[in-house]
Design goal:
Largest sheet: 3 strands, mixed
Shape: globular
Helix content: 25-40%
Order of helices and strands: HEEEEHEHH
Strand content: 15-25%
Length: 159
């Protein structure tokens, strides 16, 4: 990921859609990790409503915005782009014994998206230039175990 024009497009989409994004830029491989706020909600899948034994699925608030952000990235047509996962990362996958605690944000205005697992305010992008820096950052955020499993570097227990 070296094109500043594409990186700016990713950052604009993150700001517009209130997603927090971590980018590994510079020499290959380029890596993008994004998140939106998480709050589970039941969604009516078949349109029958709650009292009709209709099919439900658990979704998280912000899922649609995250899907929109991914579609922006896909339209940028990165060579060898691979979309690996769109999922909620449960706290139990943290690489630390303590669950991740978000850092307070200095902005006193109400935030729809408080700093989440990536420790970045909504609409902001953090750029890292080396894989070892990305790994250290994800470890600090408590999601390096999940990330290495998703990237195929390790197999989580129970799989």
């Amino acid at each position: 990921m070296t094109s500043r024009k594409k990186i700016h497009a990713i950052a604009r989409a993150a700001k517009t859609l209130s997603c927090a994004v971590v980018l590994k830029t510079g020499r290959p491989p380029g890596v993008m990790i994004a998140e939106c706020e998480y709050r589970e909600e039941n969604q009516d899948v078949d349109g029958k409503g709650k009292g009709d034994n209709g099919k439900k699925r658990i979704a998280w608030e912000g899922e649609e915005r995250l899907r929109e952000w991914v579609s922006v990235v896909k339209r940028l047509r990165y060579k060898d782009f691979q979309f690996l996962a769109l999922e909620h990362v449960p706290l139990s996958t943290a690489s630390h014994s303590q669950p991740y605690q978000p850092k307070p944000h200095p902005d006193p205005r109400p935030q729809l998206h408080p700093q989440g697992r990536l420790s970045i305010p909504a609409g902001h992008v953090k750029e890292l230039t080396e894989m070892k820096l990305l790994r250290a950052y994800l470890d600090e955020c408590g999601i390096s175990t999940w990330w290495t499993a998703r990237m195929g570097f390790s197999i989580p227990a129970g799989r």
